[in-house]
Amino acid sequence: MKAGDPVLVRGGSHMYPDGWVRGQEPTYIRKTLIALVLGDEVESGPANPRTFLRVLTAHGIGTINSAFCEVVR
After folding, report:
1. Rounded to an integer, what distance in angstroms lies between the CA atom of residue 15 and that of residue 70?
2. How many domains in the chain?
3. Parent domain of 62
4. 37: which DSSP letter?
């Protein structure tokens, strides 16, 4: 997934909104929705790093694990 790609975000997932700090509740995505990828970041450290996407949704801009997303074809 790359910047500009539309993705489906699965209902039941969560997103960390801009300005989120540890201890705050994330934004919960209740129903599947479409989002626009703004960028990505690969986690450093673990043997199997996760990729997080920065996305624009109806809930605003935030960061979400790419495992919760699917590219719209």
Report:
1. 15
2. 1
3. 6-66
4. E
